[in-house]
Specification:
- The N terminus is likely disordered.
- The protein has 284 residues and is of the alpha+beta class.
- The protein folds into two domains: 125 residues, N-terminal domain of MutM-like DNA repair proteins (Alpha-Beta Barrel); 128 residues, Orthogonal Bundle (Helicase, Ruva Protein, domain 3).
- A hairpin with a 2-residue loop joins strand 2 and strand 3.
- The chain contains seven helices and eleven strands.
- The strands form three sheets. The protein has a five-stranded antiparallel β-sheet, covered by helices on one side. Strands 2-3-4-8 form a four-stranded antiparallel β-sheet, covered by helices on one side. Strands 10-11 form a two-stranded antiparallel sheet.
- Helix 1 packs parallel to helix 6 and helix 3 packs across helix 6.
- The protein binds zinc ion.
- The site of zinc ion has 7 residues, from loops.
Amino acid sequence: MSFSTSGCENMPELPEVETVCRGLAGHLIGKHIVKIELNRDGLRFPFPSNMKSIEGLKIKSINRRAKYILIELENNSTLLVHLGMTGRFKLENLRGTPEKHDHVVIHLDDNSTAVYTDPRRFGIIDLFERGQNHPLLIKLGPEPLSSNWDGEILHSSIKNRKSAIKSVLMNQHVVVGIGNIYASEILYRSGISPNRKASNVSSTMANRIHKCTVEVLKEAIDSGGSTLKDGQFVDVNGKLGYFSHGFSVYDREGEMCKNNNCTNIIKKSIHQGRSTYHCTRCQR
Ligand SMILES: [Zn+2]
């Protein structure tokens, strides 16, 4: 099977996927999968033919790599899930009324279920063995919140790139997990124009982008986590984390810049078909 994820880097982004992972972990770890119900042949790609082999297995841990959710099972099996654009999990103590887009239902040994729902079906669910390299995971760049990434690494990976820094930040080979929304937020906080050529981003600027990336993503994860505590977690919604915090620049076209020393109006532009928001005075 061949995999391509081009053209599908909308939402959710790293913080939302991390939030979903944490929510799933709290509900699934330690339980056994009694049954996996597949209500169609596949999503973005066909489901693997051995999907039923996970029935009876215990869920050992749940981790995130980039925007992939990795559900680690007994027998060295890993269930890989990507939420695509509209994928989400619903956790139900007892299976509720099936909804139209409930494509996969994981039945657990305490009668609860984790239901994967995805109207647009850009999501991915696959199964692979630990130790094997899943083709979707091989070429991924560094995790932005790990010690494998810093301003110097960013600088050296972008200094020969002619594209705009915003597009480069969203390139999953450069750094993973940043999409359209957080790219705008990070560059606003860094004071760097989304239109600046990546090759014109200095080492100092790259260090600032790294620092702001870590701050912005961590704050978003924290706000996603606080949403979970509010008990809204019945829907493990990929969009969940977006609702609980206001953006500094994203989706604020025509509104006043949030910098106290600036009276500029936030400008919206379209880059490669994607909305970009920035302050032309604060971001250079
Ligand atoms: Zn401003």
